Amino acid sequence: MITHVRVRYEDDKKIGTVPIEDVKDFFPRHQQDFKSKSLYLVKWTDDSGDSDYYRARILALGESEDFAETEARERTRIPKRVYSPASSDYENEAEVDIGRGLMVKKGAWEHVQSHHKDSLFVKDLLVTIWSKDNLKERSLHGKHCPRYPNRPRKAPLTPWKLDVMRDCYRARLEHQGVPAGVLPLAVKQMNHFIVEKLSDIEKLAKRAKDNQGVAEV
């Protein structure tokens, strides 16, 4: 019985072993029942306990955590083929207008809407509108960070796209039945979620850079 999956996350290339339940809509019948060139949505949990699904490639399946890792090590001895973004599940999908003419992939938008937690809705919507590579060089309003005053300013997020995000979040809260009297305060929390996500992306980028430096030594 398949219980664990060895994966490589697409964004930061981090490798890990996760329970089979952490791979969204994935029900393998045997150890070779996966597509090595396809991307799957795999759960990632950060240090604060927040979790979300991110794109990842499956390296191996196993009947235990150790077995999956062993299988992956055996597979990595085979020369790897270069991955093309065209194989992404979202690449060739139809797009939808989420407001003011802002078009996003239909599957990505449906994934954003599936979140029960408001924080994950906002954070995933952020990376749906802007790519993570783009967000590495962005800040919410383009201001200096008080913690690091000597760092150069990062470009602010596009104001009209932020307005679209705010509209989407407000519509979600209204659908949830948030009272009109507290709605403005609830909508303001979106900025907090955005800053958290930008910080997480910066940490992942730094970790990837550090890991690359170690590998080159």
Automatic annotation (TrEMBL):
Gene3D superfamilies named in the record: BEN domain
Pfam families linked: BEN (PF10523)
One of the GO BP terms on file: negative regulation of DNA-templated transcription
MF-aspect GO terms: DNA binding
Domain BEN: 121-175
Domain of life per record: Eukaryota
PANTHER family: BEN DOMAIN-CONTAINING PROTEIN 5
Stated name of the protein: BEN domain-containing protein
The organism of origin for this protein: Rhipicephalus microplus
